[in-house]
Fold this protein.
Amino acid sequence: MEFDGQLALVTGSTAGIGRETARLLAAGGATVIVTGRDEARGARTVASIEADGGRAKFLAADMADLASVRALAEAVGEVDVLVNNAGIFPFAATVDQDEEGFQRLFDVNVRAPFFLTAALLPGMAARGRGSVVNVSTSATSFAVPGAAAYSATKAALESLTRTWAVEFRGTGVRVNAIAPGATVTEGTQALAPDAVDETGRKSPLGRTASAREIAEAVVFLASPRAAYVHGELLQADGGRTIG
Ligand SMILES: NC(=O)c1ccc[n+]([C@@H]2O[C@H](COP(=O)([O-])OP(=O)(O)OC[C@H]3O[C@@H](n4cnc5c(N)ncnc54)[C@H](OP(=O)(O)O)[C@@H]3O)[C@@H](O)[C@H]2O)c1
């Protein structure tokens, strides 16, 4: 299988897109580190992977806490695949955005993947192989009122994707990003299921994505099938950004 013998770390894999990505990577032969804050959800994800015959282990970490991010990197040591998926998406109009929420958005969505990648990518480079996939959003490509700060965090992640792809040139490590459109997950169902449905309906495909559909695209980028794809942003948004 294409991930045999590989260790994968998927942040935010206790739910949603991250959980489906962890399940697919494990089905492809990887041993997967499942991480998030919620131990019960983590245990359920690990159990579902093991029930399918895969290998996984849960490590608790809070991406809002830099010490916890560093401890996670230390505990993991070396990985072949890193999926920076954990993210929060509380919406607020620009004039209503509070400072604490703004800071938390950047801590979880930008600072955590930045320092996790900084800690883990040199090991990949030293071994001459590895793949990083950053989970952005299609909302960086068009204006979404109420998502100013959120979209800015993901635009930063897309910029980091391009910079890392060049900073680590010639090492055998690939870095890419994916931009999901409206996807049915625990997070979006808790936040605004109707708005997510409506956004999905506006896409040319006329519907929302399942977490599994997005995970398939993430896993493609992480896999040897994407061996010559580097520094790229893959839109997985039902065509929303083109019309
Ligand atoms: N769903 C969509 O429509 C959509 C569209 C575009 C982009 N995205 C992006 O896709 C990613 C996943 O979204 P989703 O909809 O699958 O989210 P979700 O269902 O809310 O799941 C979020 C995951 O992130 C983890 N997480 C959140 N805050 C964390 C923290 N402080 N520390 C550690 N883990 C944390 C959660 O784990 P714990 O609760 O266990 O901590 C959970 O595993 C996000 O980056 C999001 O911005 C989603």
Q: What stands out?
A: The two ends are 37 Å apart (CA to CA). The longest strand covers residues 173-180. The pocket of NAP is lined by residues 12-18, 36-38, 41, 61-64, 85-89, 108, 135, 137, 180, 182-183, 185-188, 196, 211 (CB under 6 Å). The CA atoms of residues 102 and 149 lie 7 Å apart.
